[in-house]
Structures are given as structure tokens and as C-alpha cells.
Amino acid sequence: MEDWNAIAAEVEGAIRSIGDVSQPDGFPVTLRIPGTITGPAYDPVEGPPVYRTLQCVEGYQEIRDQTGTLIAKTKHTLTVTAKPDAIPLKSHKLAIGVAAEDATEDSQWVEIAEVRPLSPAGVALLYDIDLVD
User: Fold this and answer.
1) The CATH number of the domain where 63 resides is what?
2) Which DSSP letter does residue 56 get?
3) 109: how many CB neighbours lie within 10 A of its CB?
4) What is the rounded CA–CA span in Å between residue 126 and residue 128?
5) What is the spatial distance between Cα 115 and Cα 132, in angstroms, rounded to a whole number?
């Protein structure tokens, strides 16, 4: 029986090693998870956001129309490591090239357009994240 959590840890090490050879610990990306909502429904209060560092490989793909003709649009995708406490959602944002300990509200945050997990046997190993232009 496969230990998918151990495999996820191996995948993270591999992504870290190939993510960006110019950085010794890979290419970090910070996931900004919105804070918990508290208070009454008529006056909700959002708590402080939580930042989590993931390792990534960045890619760009030129988009074609139905006839195969290139259109003036490019899809920006990040393949990121999977961690149980950092599950990316469309409601989250990312700071590319920034580790969580260096992230602030003033960091350059990018919106997530789509998230696609790679999860054999129900355990996420990687996420492909498309970013909003």
C-alpha cells in the first residue's frame, strides 16, 4: 500500500530542487489565506490573514482559438507543492517569489483564477494554479 503523504513530501523536495536553480531553496510562493470571520452576521469582522509558503514551478502557455490560431492571450500557471495546512482555493491570493516570513499586506498579491489538484488516491501531491491576468 502506497504512503501518499510520504510521496507528497518527496514531490515537495523535487519541486524545491528544480523550481528555480537561481535560488538555493527553490522558488517560493506565499499563499494568502483570508482570516476567520467572527462577530455577528450584520457586522462581521475578518481576522488577520494566514501566510503559507509553497514551492512552485512557473509556466506560461499561449492560448489558441478553435481554429488553432494564436490569440493575444497567455495563461500563467504555477505548479505548487501540496501541504495539508495550505490548500489553495479560488478565494485566496498568491505572492510569487516571496516566502511567507517575508510577506506583508503590501506584497504584490495575484488572484487565483482556477485550482486543479493532482490527487491520486484522494491525497493531493501538487496543485496547478491558473492566475488572473
Assistant:
1) 2.40.10
2) E
3) 16
4) 7
5) 12
Q: Is residue 31 very low, low, confident or very high in pLDDT (cuts 50, 70, 90)?
A: very high
CB 94 within 8 A of CB 78: yes
Output the CA torsion 95→115→11→52 (10° steps).
40
Work out how many domains the chain is built from and give that number.
Answer: 1
Report pLDDT for 123: 79
What are 53-87's pLDDT values in tens digits? Answer: 998 888 777 777 777 776 767 788 998 988 888 99
Please report the pLDDT score of residue 19 as a whole number. 53
Domain around 116: 4-131
At a CB cut-off of 8 Å and minimum separation 6, what does 66 contact?
A: none
- The confidence band for 26, taking pLDDT boundaries of 50, 70 and 90, is low
- Torsion angle of the four alpha carbons 100, 114, 76, 84, in this order, in degrees rounded to the nearest 10: 30
Measured CA to CA in angstroms, residue 92 lies from 18, 38, 95, 110, 129 at distances of: 25, 18, 10, 9, 11
pLDDT at residue 129, as a whole number: 95
